[in-house]
């Protein structure tokens, strides 16, 4: 069908349009869009995908990689809306076909299942989240005797962090230790031994951790025949937020599209904020060089998001950065509402201030959802969460604690995982030990019985549980056999919940609210076609926590967004509050020292500021609470304004103190000047 006019591209500026139409009619060569915040990179990407589809590309052969599952689904609905302007009703069916949209990890998991048999992997593998991985690392560590003999051996979390960094940075252990974990340098040999055993354990148990999803994918691409087959499945590969990919991810892209044909990457080097996860800003800077300068590079310089005063302040902050490719942006949105720099006494006052301001804005018609509160570390929002709860203001928190982190949710998912993969020891131990009378040794024996049997469920049936567990064991065996042999989705989850409920009541006092979470989980499950897809998605990108305990958001309500700056990437709100804009938080006092780390903190502040469309408040408490690190313990510290806002920049902000000096703390009016002895008066009442 002929395209009726191309009005759907008319909202784009010339550069955006060039990026959207790049390579049209021929095989598109590699394309890089590199530009500052709010310049329409993501919007351009969505238009490009829509345009490709409108021009006849097969959506099933488009691979779209974004930073989160949420970003992927937003991208898909944007593509659909854009395409609908030309294709009308047909757009929905076409964008349905855009199933290869998600994070690198999620896409990796799917491809690995597809190609499992070709690469010697059992397709029933299960995926460990970071906590499971740390548990397995710990198990292996104990088996090697590394924790017993030497109490100063790095903790399980540190071991996992080191392992993960080595894998993602594609570097040797020693330089990684020297650069990022200097206090572990004496342990290099033991760590190598540990990591080798950890890899063996994962393979024996048929589990993959997060890093494996990239590592196996990259290794798979190392086989030329598979790489070619894999690359041939996709006509177009598009990646958003490319500045935050690591070497492994770049190597995957290059293996899939060695000549860059059909490859589009989009990003902003000034927003690179994930080097602690081995993200490599050189990926984006070196992109053109990989293709012998054949790549098309599009830069965008107009910002459509923020007012000029907000942009000027953000530009000033990033202007001091030591290295930067993208240039300053301009905007046509002029405003006199300068970004505010608000001094408050402490974090409690900060919470009060934010809650007041949010409500005031809502009175003026700015929905809660159009406002966001951003912070450097997940725990910084604690006092605010308490204040919001006290005032009954609903919120959703992105980053930090997730729905999945709740013990009861993990228990239930572990049952499903164990049913999916009987070799997954971390899941098996977690599940069996829920049963009274089953400890680690009985669980270990049960697992051995399962391994010996041809069919694991039968092995479990023949295992003789200890007498103490006699009452509860048969119920578990029945559940497990049912999940293995008569699995039906999503009914499986309900079966697990019914089995789990008595245990829940025994273990937790607040069983009622936790049960409600599990019912929510069933609602989420209903949206999935299979147990395996559900488990994979939830493990890779769990729903965020909300104000009503740990449940996922009810999407029809209005709620305030609380988010770490990292999780706020790519998003925008009418009104943005940044908590703790003080030295020690931004930059984090964990980063103080190394120049690279300080530079990354500056970019973080830039990311936070550029999320705001109309109104931006940076708040600086004079004192703030520091959670115990090393020997220093929890304490209050006196803070000063973040070093990234220097004296000359102050004219770009409206500086205020809150509460205004005329009122006392907490906005109360001054104490009345009277003295009476109420105690005496009370005693007198009975005399
Ligand atoms: P970030 O770096 O933060 O990810 P970005 O470069 O991806 O930002 P977008 O989120 O795509 O920017 O766009 C920012 C805002 O500008 C969005 O509200 C988008 O709808 C709007 N926008 C982008 N391009 C145009 C345009 N040509 N005309 C009008 N609005 C636009
Ligand atoms: Mg974007």
From TrEMBL:
PANTHER family: DNA 3'-5' HELICASE (PTHR11070:SF3), UVRD / RECB / PCRA DNA HELICASE FAMILY MEMBER (PTHR11070)
A GO CC term assigned to this protein in UniProt: cytosol
InterPro entries: DExx_box_DNA_helicase_dom_sf, DNA_helicase_UvrD-like_C, DNA_helicase_UvrD/REP, P-loop_NTPase, UvrD-like_ATP-bd
SUPFAM superfamilies given in the database record: P-loop containing nucleoside triphosphate hydrolases (SSF52540)
Keyword vocabulary terms for this entry: ATP-binding, Helicase, Hydrolase, Isomerase, Nucleotide-binding
Organism, scientific name: Georhizobium profundi
Listed EC numbers: 5.6.2.4
Catalytic activity: Couples ATP hydrolysis with the unwinding of duplex DNA by translocating in the 3'-5' direction; ATP + H2O = ADP + phosphate + H(+)
Official protein name in the record: DNA 3'-5' helicase
Presence of the UniProt keyword Hydrolase in the record: yes
Residues at which ATP binds: 35-42
Gene Ontology process terms (BP): recombinational repair
């Amino acid at each position: 069908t002929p395209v009726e006019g191309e009005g759907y591209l008319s909202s784009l500026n010339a550069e955006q349009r060039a990026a959207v139409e790049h390579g049209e009619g021929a095989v598109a060569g590699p394309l890089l869009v590199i530009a500052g915040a709010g310049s329409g990179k993501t919007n351009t990407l969505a238009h490009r995908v829509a345009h490709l589809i409108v021009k006849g590309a097969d959506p099933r052969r488009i691979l779209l990689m974004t930073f989160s599952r949420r970003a992927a689904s937003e991208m898909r609905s944007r593509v659909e809306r854009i395409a609908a302007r030309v294709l009308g009703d047909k757009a929905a069916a076409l964008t349905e076909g855009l199933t290869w949209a998600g994070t690198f990890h999620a896409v990796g998991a799917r491809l690995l299942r597809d190609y499992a048999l070709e690469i010697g992997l059992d397709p029933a593998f299960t995926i460990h989240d970071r906590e499971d991985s740390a548990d397995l690392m710990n198990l292996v560590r104990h088996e090697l005797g590394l924790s017993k003999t030497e109490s100063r051996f790095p903790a399980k979390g540190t071991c996992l962090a080191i392992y993960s960094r080595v894998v993602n940075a594609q570097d040797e252990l020693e330089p990684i230790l020297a650069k990022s974990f200097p206090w572990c340098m004496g342990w290099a040999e033991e760590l190598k031994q540990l990591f080798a055993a950890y890899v063996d354990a994962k393979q024996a148990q048929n589990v993959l951790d997060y890093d494996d999803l990239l590592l196996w994918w990259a290794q798979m691409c190392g086989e030329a025949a598979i790489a070619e087959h894999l690359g041939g499945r996709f006509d177009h590969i598009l990646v958003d937020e490319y500045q935050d990919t690591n070497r492994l991810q770049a190597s995957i892209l290059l293996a899939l599209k060695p000549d860059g044909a059909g490859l589009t990457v989009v990003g902003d080097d000034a927003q690179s904020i994930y080097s602690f996860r081995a993200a490599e800003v050189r990926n984006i800077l070196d992109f053109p060089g990989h293709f012998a300068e054949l790549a098309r590079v599009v830069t965008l310089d107009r910002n459509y998001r923020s007012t000029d005063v907000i942009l000027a302040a953000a530009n000033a902050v990033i202007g001091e950065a030591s290295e930067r490719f993208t240039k300053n942006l301009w905007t046509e949105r002029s405003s006199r509402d300068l970004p505010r720099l608000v001094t408050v006494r402490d974090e409690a006052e900060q919470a009060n201030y934010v809650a007041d301001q949010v409500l005031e804005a809502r009175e003026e018609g700015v929905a809660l959802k159009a406002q966001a509160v951003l912070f450097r570390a997940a725990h910084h929002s604690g006092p605010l969460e308490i204040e919001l709860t006290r005032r009954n203001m609903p919120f959703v928190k992105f980053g930090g604690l997730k729905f999945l982190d709740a013990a009861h949710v993990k228990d239930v998912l572990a049952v499903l995982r164990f049913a999916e993969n009987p070799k997954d020891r971390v899941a098996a131990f977690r599940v069996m030990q829920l049963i009274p009378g089953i400890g680690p040794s009985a669980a270990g024996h049960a697992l051995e019985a399962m391994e010996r049997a041809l069919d694991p469920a039968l092995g479990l049936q023949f295992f003789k549980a200890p007498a103490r567990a006699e009452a509860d064991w048969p119920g578990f065996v029945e559940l497990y056999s049912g999940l293995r042999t008569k699995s039906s989705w999503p009914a499986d989850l309900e079966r697990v919940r019914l089995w789990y409920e008595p245990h829940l009541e025994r273990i937790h006092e607040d069983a009622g609210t936790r049960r409600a979470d599990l019912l929510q989980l069933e609602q989420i499950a209903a949206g999935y076609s299979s147990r395996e897809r559900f488990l994979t998605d939830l493990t890779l990108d769990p729903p965020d926590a909300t104000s009503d305990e740990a449940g996922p958001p009810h999407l029809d309500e209005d709620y305030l967004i609380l988010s770490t700056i990292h999780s706020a990437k790519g998003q925008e709100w009418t009104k943005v509050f940044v908590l703790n804009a003080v030295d020690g938080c931004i930059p984090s006092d964990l980063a103080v020292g190394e120049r690279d780390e300080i530079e990354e903190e500056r970019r973080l502040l830039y990311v936070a500021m550029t999320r705001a469309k109309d109104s931006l408040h940076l708040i600086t408490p004079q004192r703030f609470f520091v959670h115990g690190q090393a020997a220093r313990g929890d304490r209050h510290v006196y803070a000063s304004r973040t070093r990234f806002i220097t004296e000359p920049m102050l004219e770009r902000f409206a500086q205020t103190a809150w509460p205004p000096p005329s009122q006392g703390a907490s906005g109360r009016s001054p104490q009345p000047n009277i003295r009476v002895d109420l105690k005496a008066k009370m005693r007198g009442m009975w005399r």
